[in-house]
Write a structure and sequence with these properties.
The structure is a homopentamer. With about 375 residues, the first copy, chain A, is of the alpha+beta class. Helices cover about 55% and strands about 15% of the residues of chain A. Chain A has nine helices and seven strands. Chain A has a seven-stranded mixed sheet, sandwiched between helices. In chain A, helix 8 packs antiparallel against helix 9. Chains A and B meet through helix 1, helix 7, helix 8 and helix 9 of A and helix 4, helix 6 and helix 8 of B.
């Protein structure tokens, strides 16, 4: 029985890849590996290393994770980025850098809640990179783990399809950039900042969706609007679920009194904190707007439906008296007055027309249409 | 009068076995035993003992609870697991291990709120194991009490139908496992971790239910969907009621500065705390999804109903003018024009057809169907 | 103008006796006694006293409150219970035991919010005993005030129709009971415990009501269900209003560091605290269930109504074409084809039947019924 | 442009005099007095003074505010009450008692949020007296400012139509009353207590309104009930807006460690705090009741409407088959069977009656009416 | 790709200019300038300087920002106001006054969340000036940044269309005004006070809108009311989003123990804090009113619709029996009774009329219309 596949199937359907909770690969449970299988291993792993200080920089794509071990003692700030998660690789790197086994578990498991942990000598933080998938109109996510030590930063990404860290690489190559003047804490800040900034790009995409839906709702011409609104509400749940813990995460950095964080860098972490607070605010506002749009949409649909029903009911009602009069003079009684009168027919037709006209006037007076 | 039976009857109906509050077996009230009867006693009690340290392990199924008393002074870590609650047995064990009478009461009573208490020399925690009953499509629960002392852990289960601790037994037999290297605190952690991990299995089952219901709602073909949605909402209330106090419970361990908890083990308790927070989060998200699904479902039902009513109203309305014209020329006046004309009938029929056609065109223009 | 009578009239109507706020008998206002009259005085007052320690017990029904004054210096623990509130009696007792005038006011006034006050040498707590009135299907309440001093407990009840303290009296007579071994703090705990335990009996009654209403709602056969649901919501408001302050009250005992509370007794107060938390939890859950039941009910009513309207609309619609055809061949034109044909009538009738049959098939295909 | 007039006009319409926020008369803005004009000045000002201690009392109505200056050094407790706010008067008194200019501003401006400020040597508190206006069925308010110093209390009222302090005056004249035995802090407590007690009178009036509306809703015979419910909801918003800050205000007194407040008086302030908490609680409960009444009302209206529509639809539907049959035998075909049969007519009529009867039976069977 | 333009387009549509989150101009991202372009630069920049103390004042409009550098060492309090944001100008000024680069970024970026930062030697705060645009019936905003140092205040405005600081300039010229007696902290307070006071003007405008909408809703004659209600709800979201952080901002000043803030000035900041709390309160109340108005409106629309449908259904239903009777006597059977009777026709017509009259009486009796 492969439980792992199910939630993914489920959430592909729901377009909620970031919602389902942590299914971890636990040491204890591995005696019974059929219950909770290990994370699907990445097909290939890409490792690159930046080893830099203010004066020099070395950039390398490495064939295997073992090749990066040497940089631990380089004396410069080292950034090791590993794309693709494979259990032996992660364990090898983490062992070399003395990372706690529980953290290794967190890195390897899927759908973790963003979190941050400070232990002696290093910070660990785990959060999700979010992408907006234009085709499925859904928010996708990629789990990113960052370990920051005195003079190194190690980052793990699930895969490297859209690498959010590209601008950072370009920046690193410029000798005069701030990032080259500072240590690993500034590097870590930059990475968190890039991730949080990207959240705003995703929200902007959702904003466009909301705009489209609102146009639809105001024009009132699409019965599927409610399905879209429901979907947008779900996307916002995903966002909120991802953002709220990131605020705690950033707060963890701010409250820390670790020596690893330079006083000057704390200001920058505060900046990222401000942005994530703003993002959470914005999600809340989007939610309010969507809810009031849903109210408006449902009311519009009812209004339009009611208009149609009203016209139908009025037409049916207007014609009913004529039917009755037709029936009256269609009866086969011998003695029906005016039947033989020359103008009888015209009189009857006139009454048939007069009654609806009178009804219309009365309805108008009461403001019924 | 047997009050105890009622809540169970009631909640069997509601499928909410975990909801009804504590009806305790109180010393004070036992003078009037007809008001609140004692918990129904278990038919049979199964006792097994693990007595282990890093080097040796002894595993035994014991005939009675008295046989486990000797292990108190074994010098190793002892795990005593008792399946089935019988008042004399529980009291005997608890007296032997000097457990407070109020805790004995808690163990023996049903439907307790999860809680945790630290007294000098031991920790007591009580929580519910949750199972998803596929037949009744409802969440069942079994109360588990754990007492952890310096070198012993005593666990009480209501019965042993589905033993969640099986993986733990297998693990204990492996001499090199972490659990053998640590003391009773790590054993206690492992048990809590297994219980909380199982919560995710239950939530996954609910997730599948939600998926099914959502498919139904989107296809819009099942009038009973709302009953299912209501039931899922109730299941989520049960989960929330069980999860929230477990967070407090775990927090109690984290805040404790007891010597019983090793500094290295605290990290593991923090891990379980993170998972229960994640589970609470997830329940909240499920609830949001269910509520927005309910909105969608109710709207879909209305939409479909409205569509039917609209078509009916339109058809009735379209045919009304023809009825009137039929009536007009069915009157028995002597002088009705065109009555003797050769094409009179065809003209009338043409008008009968033309009016609805014109109405259809006009309705289309206004976007009414 | 007698303002006091009004809220009672009002809430008898609403079945919300516990909801209306405190109208106190204030010293200041008593210069203008017509504005807020004094509480209606009890017709008769019953006083009984238990004077006990571990070895001896004395139980007496006293003719007047003055007769209990002598027990103040008995050296044993004294429990004075006064059923029925009469201003002179309460003031006499309270003066004798040096109770603050504001507390006397609280005891004498009606509809107080549960509260607890610690002053030097004594604890005062006021809360409501709740009863479920089967006839009116409403929750009634009786105000109980408890004053606990070093070796005495004084309790005031509004009247003694259903005395919740009966089990306590029986228990007191048993020389080996815990209550005889402890002092006034344990006596006070026992009383609070009995009151809070009784809350669960009331909730169970409400639980049965909810069960009945839910059965009705699921069967969908009672248009008055919503009135019952509304009433249950109001009963739950009463419960919540009574429970929440009791939690604060118990918390007040737990946080107190008075010498009056023995360290061993605190554990028992913690136990009552746990139960009231559980009761509050349960009220919250009941509320959620009731709200989702209301949604279900309203939807069921709509669904059923819609089904009826749909069938009516369909039948009317199916017969409309036949009416038209009847009208067509009922016209009096000279030249109507097939009128003289032998099978003309049958052809017309066949068409009259064929059209509804075709319509039914089409509606079925679209899933309209 | 006179902005001040607008909010008043607006809220006269809305019956929400207590809702609109503070428009203050600011020193800065007074250079441009047309933007925010000063508060409309009172036409006449009434000043009275009580100067008392336990032994003596002097009561005077003074012609102008300057005449009360002498009492500052009387050595007794002085209560100066000023009805009607006129800028020069308020400034004169406040200058004499060294009150901060910002507080003078607060006193003079309208629609302030209740607040309390402690500065060295004095307490300032501002709150609203509430009246229920029977004619407009709305809650009115009057702003009251109280300044309490070591041996004086100064109170400012907007006008003196309904003077809530009358009982206090009567009480002051009684030499043995508590108020004469205590200082200015007890006087201040008495005033706050009178104001808060009056809130309960207002709530009682609203309670009667709610009772009336509920009777209407349960009888279901008034289409305007929703308008009344909406208005009651708004009145409750006014109350909540006035009550919540008063709790903070009272809390400010309780937390203060000023020497002005005697330890014995603090108990009395705690009493007022308890009452305002109770009032807030009650407003919350009223709100819950009103919301559930609104649900009930809307559902009742729908239910009744649906009943009418159902009967209409059923009658129309029952008669449709008869119309068709009439049409069939009204056709002019030559060969219509049974047309010449003696019992043909009666057979047709029988069928016409039989079909609706059969329909009625079937509808009954399905529980449709 | 110009992402910046999109949110503005979007929010122009939504009339929510203040909602969309911060898109900052980041140093890091500027390596890839096409992703997030810089803020659109102002076309022209207006600089004016006030340099004053209690005795003297100098006021100047300067051609460029560099000309104000000299005032730094003037020894007086200097206020530099810059209308129009141009990157080089802002950077030049900020460099001269040693402002942190992150603050420069905040000043230059759009749609920032209001915030406040205290660093050694200066305070920075950023908030939005709000204007009510009568034409678009929407709330507009302009970002204002204020930097306050020991003897200077620098303010940056996006543009100077409606200058809220005009009253301040007038005030400054009066030698005896308080503002001339105090330092830069009082100047800063005055600016914040003017901005917050202006919030009340905006809310008053919204209040008038709410009044209009309510009149419409109570009269019930505008189907577009819901669109307006939805828009007002969105405007209130904008207000709330702008007000809540300003409370934190003011709180930051109150909690600060900087030497820059004089003890006497703190009282004034507390005053502004009170006003923003009041504004937040008011927004909350407006929201409650709008929601209850929306309920009322939807119900009114349904009520009116239902009335029309009811009348139509009743008229149709009343005429149905006459149609049937007409059909009965229109049948062509040979033997129809009373057909040849002289009064047969009149009897039939009488029945035709009698049935609806009887129906009307019965409907009336049941209170159906």
């Amino acid at each position: 029985m492969n439980l792992k596949l199910r939630p993914e199937k489920y959430f592909r359907y729901l377009h909620l890849p970031g919602l389902f909770g942590a299914r971890r690969t636990k040491e204890i449970l591995s005696v019974n590996p059929t219950i909770i299988p290990l994370r699907e291993e990445a097909h290939e792993v890409a490792v690159f290393v930046f080893d830099y200080d203010a004066n020099s920089i070395e950039e390398k794509n490495l064939p295997g994770v073992e090749d990066c071990f040497a940089y631990k003692t380089s004396g410069h700030t080292t950034w090791i980025n590993i794309d693709g998660l494979r259990k032996p690789d992660v364990e090898a790197v983490c062992n070399h850098y003395a990372v706690h086994p529980l953290i290794v578990e967190d890195i390897l498991s899927v759908n973790q809640r963003p979190k941050m942990e400070e232990s002696d000598g290093s910070f660990f933080c785990l959060l999700n990179m979010l992408y907006y998938d234009q085709d499925k109109q859904a928010v996708n996510h990629e789990q990113i783990s960052i370990i920051m030590g005195k003079d190194y930063v190690i980052s793990f990404q699930e895969d490297a399809i859209q690498d959010v860290f590209n601008p950072l690489r370009d920046r690193l190559k410029i000798a005069t950039s701030k990032i080259r003047q500072h240590g690993s804490d500034y590097l870590c800040y930059t990475m968190l900042d890039l991730i949080v900034d990207n959240y705003f790009v995703v929200m902007e995409k959702l904003g466009e969706q909301i705009e489209e839906v609102e146009e639809e709702v105001v024009r009132g011409n699409n019965p599927r609007s409610l399905v879209r609104i429901t979907q947008l509400r779900k996307e916002l749940i995903v966002l909120k679920r991802n953002f709220s813990p990131v605020r705690e995460l950033m707060n963890g950095f701010l409250r820390s009194d670790s020596e690893l964080l330079d006083d000057r860098t704390i200001k920058y972490f505060k900046d990222v904190y401000d942005h994530i607070v703003q993002a959470i605010d914005l999600v809340e506002n989007y939610r309010d707007i969507i809810v009031s749009m849903q109210d408006l949409h449902i009311n519009n649909v009812n209004l339009k439906m009611n208009e149609v029903m009203k016209v139908m009911a009025i037409v049916t009602c207007l014609l009913a008296p004529a039917t009755v009069i037709g029936g009256v003079f269609g009866m086969n009684f011998d003695a029906i007055p005016y039947l033989h009168n020359q103008y009888g027919f015209w009189a009857a037709v006139t009454i048939m027309l007069a009654i609806p006209v009178w009804m219309i006037l009365m309805f108008r007076k009461r403001g019924w249409f």
